[in-house]
Amino acid sequence: MIPLSMTISWYGHSCFRLESKGTSVLIDPFDKAIGLRPPRHGGDIILVSHEHSDHNNIAGASAEAFLVRGPGEYEKSGVYIEGIKSYHDNSEGKERGLNTIYIIRFEEIRLCHLGDLGQNELAEEQIKAIGEVDVLFVPVGGNYTIDGIQAAKIVGEIEPKIIVPMHYKIPGLTIDIDGPQKFLKEIGLKPEEVETLKIAKKGLPTEEVKLVMFKV
């Protein structure tokens, strides 16, 4: 039997596409105003972590696309999604509003996308709801989200098998955030650089945590 596998692509900022066997999940699509080329929509499922234009560009999405934009439990095409309420700032949303953390169960792999998490620390109930994580997408650029030091601490609380930093400065991005250097220094792991990430449940790390960064 051929093992179930998934391909993960990064478009910059917090936008990823998960694909397997003709099913596609697009997370946090942005518009061109941030200086990067927006992804083509397509696919079956679109997740929006919060209602800011660098994360919620659904213009051009298919009318048949399954759109998720908040806390709750969802299922589509064999993909199971749980949205967990969180905050875009460290003041319970008073500055920048709410944010949704997404847990995605897809091809026996459990992924967690933290969106624009701005809380310096996760609450106990959030950590419990997140549970065991195979792949963690974590913002590290600071200013509008947690910074590299805070991100490293939260990674330690979640203990994923694979860490994927996101929401940091790359060429062309006009948003004022930091690069990944502070996070890389704090986390102390040598990143594996990839164009796309192909993973299967049986191939996940069992001993050491893996840090993956996408080439830009």
Give a short synopsis of this structure.
With about 220 residues, the chain is mainly beta. The radius of gyration is 16 Å and the shape is globular.
What does this protein look like?
This protein is mostly beta strands and 216 residues long. Helix content is 12%, strand content 35%. The strands form 2 sheets. Strands 6-7-8-9-10-11-14-12 form an 8-stranded mixed sheet, with helices on one face. The chain starts with a strand and ends with a strand.
Strand content: 25-35%
Q: Which sequence of strands runs across the widest sheet?
A: 6-7-8-9-10-11-14-12
From the alpha carbons, calculate the radius of gyration and give it in angstroms: 16 Å
Structural class: mainly beta
* Series of secondary-structure elements, N-terminal to C-terminal: EEEEEEEEEHEHEHEEE
Average predicted local confidence, pLDDT: 91
Low-pLDDT segments: none
Largest sheet: 8 strands, mixed
List the topology elements.
Layout: E1 5-12, E2 15-20, E3 23-27, E4 45-47, E5 66-68, E6 72-76, E7 79-87, E8 98-106, E9 109-113, H1 124-130, E10 135-139, H2 148-158, E11 162-166, H3 181-187, E12 192-194, E13 197-200, E14 210-214
Helix pairs in contact: 2-3
Summary tags:
216 residues; mainly beta; eight-stranded mixed beta sheet; six-stranded mixed beta sheet; 3 helices; 12% helix; 35% strand
